[in-house]
Amino acid sequence: MGGQDSTATTAALAGLLVLLAPVLALIAFLAVIVTLLVPSSHAACTPAASGAAGGEGGEWVATAYGPPWEGIQGDGITATGINLQEGPQMYLIAVDPSVIRLGTYWHVSPNPWGNPKLTFLAGDTGGAIVGHRIDIYDWEGRAAQNAWGSEHVTLTPAAGNGAANVLEAAPAGPVEARGGEGETAGCPAGAPEGPLPLTSAQTAKVLSDGLAAAPVEAPQAVKDMIAAGDRLHNATYVYGAGHGPPLSTLQPAYDCSSAVSFVLHAGGVFGDYAEDSTELESYGEPGPGKWVTVYANSEHAFMYLAGVRFDTSWKGTDEGPNNGQNGPRWRVYPEVPKWATWVVRHPPGM
């Protein structure tokens, strides 16, 4: 009898599994959909992807290219549409897109400028750039390119354009820093993603990783602008870039006035499209503001937010962690740059 009972039980279980199979399949399918559509609760702590298959570290061969544009140097228009014909100063490399994804950011060491902190945009390709080989854009001309020649270099991934979700609501309590100096909204210190870091100080603070923390007591619009400045941390400088597309979309490159426009727009005190530096001379109201001040003339524009300068220019006027890096960055210097005369403006109420 025991054997017959066992056989009957086994048959019953087999029948039940047959009946439940469609239900189990449906549950598995729904689980996959939820995984794809619902982000992890720790998404803010996940570093942005920097590279495609391969390319993370290791030895690479690096040559240099740039103006004058002729022959194998190309026409000065990159594979991603960036216009290099006038030799703008920006850090860019040509890569094999099957190895390194276009639009990602990398540290290259050594490099022609001798600064391992520089962040290079993978923004171009080339017929001879295959496998573990890159071409470094050098705007300084053929002599500089030939002097570099061909070198063995190491590539390491760099963070993308700042924290992708840094414009989210800031944490409730003061956060003193980032990059080993504190924690941000439950994320481990040094995580490249996460909410805007805050400081209990009366002014903003440039952190060791080059990003900025906002004063905890600053108006929300000011926090939003500082967060926007952090988003541009790894953007490169290209004259005329950032003008044309709406300021609500993040671009890979900016010039001085489009970077200022982007930050002001994030605070809700600017229009939808960037203005040039001459137009910024008549922006807002005259004189310095309490929280936000714009400096402009016909050739350049920059701004101060909560006491910290945001500028694409660094030469001679940056003693902080972003010294030596072109592009929109937070600058540390004890006084306003004096190499030109500035028209001083501020957003109404700021």
Annotate the secondary structure layout.
Elements: H1 2-37, E1 59-65, E2 92-94, E3 105-109, E4 120-124, E5 133-137, H2 142-148, E6 151-158, E7 198-199, E8 205-206, E9 212-215, H3 220-231, E10 236-237, E11 253-254, H4 256-266, H5 277-280, E12 285-286, E13 292-296, E14 301-305, E15 308-311, E16 329-331, E17 343-346
Helix pairs in contact: 3-4
Key terms:
six-stranded mixed beta barrel; 17 strands; 5 helices; six-stranded antiparallel sheet; endopeptidase fold (from Nostoc punctiforme); Barwin-like endoglucanases; 20% helix; single chain; globular; 350 residues; alpha+beta
Structural class: alpha+beta
Number of helices: 5
Low-confidence stretches: 29-56, 160-193
CATH class of the domain at 219-346, named Alpha Beta
What is the radius of gyration computed over CA atoms, rounded to a whole number of angstroms? 25 Å
What level of helicity do the residues show? 10-25%
The CATH topology of the domain at 219-346 turns out to be endopeptidase fold (from Nostoc punctiforme)
Pattern of helices and strands: HEEEEEHEEEEHEEHHEEEEEE
Number of strands: 17
Biggest sheet layout: 6 strands, mixed, barrel
Strand content: 15-25%
CATH architecture of the domain at 219-346: Alpha-Beta Complex
Say which CATH homologous superfamily of the domain at 219-346 is assigned.
endopeptidase domain like (from Nostoc punctiforme)
| C-alpha termini separation | 89 Å
